[in-house]
Amino acid sequence: MHTSSRRRSSRLAGKTVSYREELVSSVSLTNRNQKIRTKREREDSGPETPMDVKVEQANKPHPTKPQSLTSQPTAKSTVVNVSKILERYLGRKMDSSGKAPVVRETVNASQPKNEECPGYFVSFNKYSGVCEWRNEAIFLWVNMGNKDSDVNNEFLEGGRLITWFGGSRMHEQSPVMQRLLNIGKRAARNDLSTNDGIILWCRLFESTKRGFGPYVCMGRVGYHSHFSNTHPLKFIWCLLDYDKLISVHRETCQGKSGTIFEQLSNTKPPISNQLE
């Protein structure tokens, strides 16, 4: 039996080739003819149009878009319960320094008793002197005792009043200022739900540590007055939970020095001098 054949091509006349070589040659010729036909078909159909490109792109499979991550909750999208916060933290110093522990712990305190604490951290602007919440609740941050500070916050009238200064970019018509005025005036008239209100958080500068200590919850405040012609804006707030604060001071801070409660009893100018 013969295992080879002879080419009929005059170029390869007399040369013996295998069936495999003939098969490869045949496939190559078929592919070349196919390319020639495809080229002729394209030439006959004319140049490619934008519509052809769109159709071709539409027929291509699109990669699956990654599922968007759940956005981190903010203070403005979170509801806090003022009455529950005061029940747990009024007159108490936080265990850790900074605003973040205050925000985290107060959000946890606002949850129902039978509900687990949220496993997330609420984001907020740590550089602002105000922390707004979704409901009619606001936190005011106050630094005290730092002689090198640009503004001097102090208690007045034996601690029943306190001064507070807005941020450098805040003006009387700022949305946050309008909200402060609205909620503060309603709080002074006792026209708010017990779950709402403005909570004052103070921290004292500790000279030995050359920094501020943890914040202390000084309770709710109500609007007393403000000065629209000053920059930054100056407010005077009434401490609505003053009597309870004094009671807490006597129970927990008796004999201790270097506490925020010492600021309450310091002699300050009469309120009439502050309004000039």
From TrEMBL:
Extent of Polar residues compositional bias: 65-76
Biased amino acid composition, Basic and acidic residues: 40-59
Protein name as annotated: Uncharacterized protein
Span list, region Disordered: 23-76
Lineage: Eukaryota, Sar, Stramenopiles, Ochrophyta, Bacillariophyta
Organism field: Trieres chinensis
